[in-house]
Amino acid sequence: MVTYTNQPGFTQQSLIRNFCIIAHIDHGKSTVADRVLQLSGVVSQRDMHDQFLDRMDIEQERGITIKSQAVRVPWVKDGTEYTLGMIDTPGHVDFTYEVSRALEACEGAVLLVDATQGIEAQTLSNLYMAIEHDLTIIPVLNKIDLPSADPDRHAAEIANLLGCSPDDVLRVSGKTGEGIRELLNQIVDEVPPPHGQSQAPVRALIFDSVYDPYRGIVTYIRMVDGELKARQKIRMMSLGTVHDPGELGVICPDMIATKALGAGEVGYVITGVKDVAQSKVGDTITTETLPAEQPLPGYRDPQPMVYSGLFPVDNAQFPELREALDKLKLNDAALVYEPETSVALGFGFRCGFLGLLHMEIVSERLSREFGLDLISTAPNVTYKVTMEDGSQHLVKNPSEFPDGKVKKIVEPLVAASIITPKEFIGSVMDLCQDHRGQMGTMEYLSPERVEMHYTMPLAEIVFDFFDQLKSRTKGYASLDYHEDGEQAADLVKVDILIQGDKIDAFSAIVHKEKSYTYGVMMTKKLRELIPRQQFEIPIQAAIGSRIIARETIRALRKDVLAKCYGGDITRKRKLLEKQKAGKKRMKMLGHVEVPQEAFIAALSTGDAEDRDSKDKIRAAKKSNE
Amino acid sequence: MDASINRTVQARVPFELYIHVPFCLKRCGYCDFNTYTATDMGGGASRSNYANLAIAEMRLVHDWQQIHGIEEPALSSIFFGGGTPTILPAADLIRMVKAAEELWGLEYGAEVTTEANPDTVDEQYLAQLADGGFTRISFGMQSAVPHVLATLDRTHTPENVTTNVRAAQRQGLRSSVDLIYGTPGESLDDWQRSVQAALDLEVQHISAYALTLEPTTKMGRQVTRGQLKGPDDDDEAAKYELVDDMLTQAGLGWYEISNWACPGQESRHNVGYWRNIDWAGIGPGAHSHYNRVAFAVEKGLIRGSSKQTIWRTTSQAQDSEQSSTQTSASAYTPLAALTKPSPEFCSIAPIRAWDIAHPKVWAQAVQAGEVPWGGGEAITLVEDIEETVMLGLRLREGLSLKQLSAVSGHVWAEADFVPAVSHDLALVSGGRIVATRKGRLLNDDLIAQVLDLVTNGV
Q1: Has keyword Methyltransferase (chain A) (predicted)?
Q2: pLDDT tens, B399-424?
Q3: ipTM over cut 0.85
Q4: What chain B residue is nearest to A566 in terms of C-alpha separation?
Q5: Measured by CB atoms within 10 angstroms of the end CB, which terminus of chain B is less buried, N or C?
Q6: B395 with B269, same domain?
Q7: Whole-model pTM?
Q8: Whole domain around residue B434: which residue ranges?
């Protein structure tokens, strides 16, 4: 066991360097972090497993870091031992606020870019955020060992962005370890040490909070001012709650309890609270006995941006769904949910998410970790609806859309930035225009790549925007967005009727211009997805009482008329058993059996490509004029 | 379990024999049967040696029945299917009939049928069969329209069929023709022509099958790749209604979903399958079915499941589910187990077994003196009910509630089904559930409705 000179609670701020790594998914952040741990000697070769810092299975599988971690890494340069605080940041658009808190905890940021891909939109937006936080940026190209790497070109691009020389861009390989030593030396040289007031009352920033089944909530903190001792009662300044002292410590990369943490240090505290909502990211910790006067700036509650209904296929699983959500909530302060009843789908929950990835992760965890078979309804955003009679409604679900005369509907907007190779500018513009985007500025990052800025309704993004963007740009474009105000818009609710019954789970709020396309495409899609049954099934789309599109699933005339002789009987019997099992997975809406896929059909209704759809859309519009 | 179980198990039903001949001149694009175009598959499994092997298997099966105390009545029917049975010399087919007769006896007036490809027979061949005890020929006509025959890869011409059916009729053989509808490119008119052509032959039995594509066949792959348009359910339904109308009008009534006959001319053999009787299957891949087999299960192996493998599989067993429970399997083959007089380990259940599919491996097993079964299953109570229902509902005589009650151990009455089963899919009367024409077309749905009711609570 190596002993270190700098002990937690007794480390001079001048020897501390806190930094984070900003990178796009798949650009190799975790691999680089692993090499840093290995090179510094805090993780032995034997214990090393790839992506040491990503703890959750789902993260490892997807290669995404959702929960950041903070590791204390010793690094000796020119005979002096420095203490590096390496803070891992989430890389996805949905976790912007968490990223901003992680940045707040650092003085420097390593901008890590894949030398085969170049910088992506989310990285760029995190970079801008880091610059706004006055962080020292250390640009690095990763994956230089790959044959397809083009470091010269991407170094020029980064230099152009940062106003540095291309030679200032370091070149490393997380895979081989090349350049990692130089990177750490550079961090020591360039990242400024923290400069908190070590004698002042304690102020510590919570930049992450994680549920551990054995220890409760582990709260990651960055000490800003003062010295926190292990036995002191602590106070959460925004929540106003006081907690008995639990354990104080540092991650190295296992959790090591310490007696104190001093200004500038990064570590963790365990208070005994049981869910992350009681230990909120962005909040400031101080001591009960000698509290600070002002909390650190920048705290806010996470706001759900996207809502979706989650229903168990088998309604008997409702209590299990509730239990599962309660468990996820322990570790996910941004997840909100309330019970919802759907005529079509029975009992479930209306859930609020930070964004689409957040939603995807939650539903995947529910099915993977809790074995739940779920139907999730199409995501939607929150609308503020004002009626002619002056009443106001907050609509998080199309089924809450009020009847009667609507005066005004306000929808949330986002500022989106898209980075794309220049040859796709045209198709990206078309796509954004199609999604009611207002173009802002456009900047060339390099002669080949541009960054385009749009203001768009969030509702347009939560549908299938990202998939379409990827397909129109052959996967090259990247997208980042953040909330940016709201606007009044001409929106209507489109209902879907099956056999004349309105199916609440299929209702959607869409722009009037697009309502016809939506109605036609949705009815067509359902006609494809719902298997033919013994009776004719009319499928209609309606705005209010006006039918705008109609399709019919013709009655099934024949199922199987195969031969059934001696050698066919076992196979036929097994086939019947299989069909029976398949039916169990169908949802009965009235007499109609509807497969689960139908409920997410609205996500991929897409544009009218074929002639029949175009004709029907035209007819629907005409009938309205 | 009755501790004094009688080791002689009386068969409660008629008994028939199916002999599979796994050879063809040419492989048809739609066919997924167990058949081969080579003349010699190795290991003695050649066309010329085939009758010898089949007869050897009959003896092995007969021994197995004896050891198990299964006493079957004389055969009521023998049926040669394929493949193309008539690819063998008529003398070989006759030799197999004689061998079966020696082993089990042949009921007076028994039905002896062979399938025939119109290419492979002539009047002399048919005369030989008639002399040798055959009573019935089933011709694979498929269509009377040349472009449809070509799509189906059939090598015969419509004229072949006429010549041979006439010859069979002259020899006093009952004859039937098979038709296929729904072939890619077949119009409703084409189909009408084929049905009319079949009627013009004045046969007293016609089978008509919707073309069913298996993805593993040549035609199945062509459809998957989009090179050929697959069969369409609505088109097939229209064609079914057409053939049903035309045949009924000509005096051939439906007696099973895909089979029509003049009264008394039904295929007795096939009706046996649908009534779920006992049959022995001989030849590679052939299935056998016995309603009551006493078999022993080694203590500790039964574990409340009647799904235990109850026979020895060969080392080439194809069914991994079955072979996985087999180590030194011979300890609990029915053969060995029943020689141990420990009745508390006995169980009686229906079983189905199937012969090893590959002719060479099958031949090796026969030559080694083993019943050449590749796999099988003990049929559970629920499965037995499922089979009784799905088979009974194919028949004009319908699903007998008496039979259903006997199988399920619960007394079923008409009133149980009247409200639950869609009235346009089936009629419930005379102690039977009989599919309407719509119920024939939507037979799977009808079966599901009846089973939902019957297996709930079993």
Answers
A1: no
A2: 999 999 999 889 999 999 988 888 89
A3: yes
A4: B273
A5: N
A6: no
A7: 0.67
A8: 384-454
